[in-house]
Amino acid sequence: MLIAGFPAGAWGTNCYLVAPAAGEECVIIDPGHQAAQGVEEALKKHRLKPVAVVLTHGHIDHVASVVPVCGAHDVPAWIHPEDRYMMSDPAKALGLSVGTPLMGELTVGEPDDVKELTDGAELSLAGLEFSVAHAPGHTRGSVTFGLPEAADIPPILFSGDLLFAGSIGRTDLPGGSMEDMLESLARVCLPLDDSTVVLPGHNEHTTIGQERATNPYLRQVATGQGAVRAPRRGM
After folding, report:
1. What is the mean pLDDT of residues 213-218?
2. What DSSP character marks residue 99?
């Protein structure tokens, strides 16, 4: 399997291109702010042909390049229906105090072909089988994408802003909820095998086993510990 990732834009949000191997079809995950050039460079480097864009949630740092990327390659974008409005109205999704200086330089709107994700869906794209889990908390329509173990490759979770290395996504933006976030962590993450690799959109990856041992939010839902203060970094 080939996973090519790079941080893009002012927020350094990782965009991923996922394919069975170089020279084959691929899926693009979260082409956010200023990601279009990086996507084109990765497609050329690995000789990939995109067949779809899939989005873990609708914040502008994850979707800002959806329109140019989908338009350039005539592919659909998949997003949960509760976050779909964010592609056309990013300021409403973020609140007035977050990201406002960047709004003037962004091209917002929906691509021509938008498909809606549902909890428990299985997406067969580019020869890969992605399992979709609705995971509200960061936004109402946040989802994760899972890939099963294959040959010598462990299972993989593209967690969006549900789970980071040692932390979770912030819950203080419109549509955020710490109660929902903890429920999503318990339902989506805790049942996964310890070997599951988590690609959280930052500069390092982690595993569910490492998160069980070090992440205070997973410990909270696993052991019933007291409340942990929500992080406020990033989007």
Report:
1. 91
2. S
HSE, side-chain direction, 13 A CA sphere, residue 228 = 21
Exposed/middle/buried for 60, CB within 10 Å: 0-12, 13-18, 19+? Answer: buried
Look at the pTM and tell me if it is higher than 0.85. Answer: yes
Tokens of 178: 């710490």
pLDDT tens, 97-131? Answer: 544 455 555 667 899 999 999 999 999 999 999 99
Token pair 């974008």: residue: 77
Report CA 66 to chain centroid distance, whole Å. 13
Per-residue tokens: 196: 């599951």
Q: How far apart are the first and last CA of the chain?
A: 29
- In the three-class reduction of DSSP (H, G, I as helix; E, B as strand; rest coil), residue 190 is classed as coil
Taking only the tens place, the pLDDT of each residue in 8-24 is: 887 888 899 999 999 99
Structure tokens at 74: 């005539």
The C-alpha atoms of residue 222 and residue 224 are separated, in whole angstroms, by 6
